[in-house]
Amino acid sequence: MEWLIPSLIVLATILAMEWVAWASHKYIMHGFGWAWHRDHHEPHDKLLEKNDLYAIVGAAMSISMFALGSPLVMGDAAWWPGTWIGLGILGYGIIYTLVHDGLVHQRYFRWVPKSGYAKRLVQAHKLHHATVSKEGGVSFGFVFVRDPAALKADLKRQERAGIAQLRS
Fold first, then answer.
1. Average model confidence (pLDDT) for the chain?
2. How many other C-beta atoms are found inside a 10 Å radius of the C-beta of residue 130?
3. Quick one: DSSP state of residue 115?
């Protein structure tokens, strides 16, 4: 049973990281961090994007938690959950890389899903990229996505609101 609590911490961290990613994407990447994120919304043929710097931020978060949990680094002040939180952040980073960069943007492999969850995930992210500006995006999550029909309705609502603002 020694593995139960650490496993739950890793799993809870992976789940919590989806919220962290959603909030970071909506409020940082599409906010004051747009300078790094902009090229992700623009067509290009480069191998790397400025947006990839956010992966380094995620890695630094994971490494920091591993350090906080390490008796080799922290001595007697080591915080044992830190190791497992660091592992959860790393796990989310791997999932994110495979799903977002691999499946959605096809940076690592070519596979276009024809049905199911994977297709819904790709559609939701394409709806997010339907706007190339900082404002007006939908679907800021990465792994857990809403139904694309609901996201399309959100986009239409935003477009109507924007048109209404232009008229007034």
1. 86
2. 15
3. S
Q: The pTM is what?
A: 0.84
d(CA 158, CA 135) in angstroms, rounded, equals 10
pLDDT digits over 104-140, tens only?
888 888 888 888 888 888 888 887 887 777 887 776 7
**Distance, CA of 29 to CA of 23 (rounded, Å):** 9
Token duo for residue 115: 């049905």
**DSSP state letters, 73-86:** HHGGG--THHHHHH
For residues 125 and 139, is the Cβ–Cβ distance under 8 A? yes
Residue found under tokens 């940076």: 107
Q: Quote the Cα angle for 5-14-42, to 5°.
A: 170
Task: Kindly tell me the sign of the dihedral angle through the C-alpha atoms of 25, 26, 30, 33.
Answer: negative
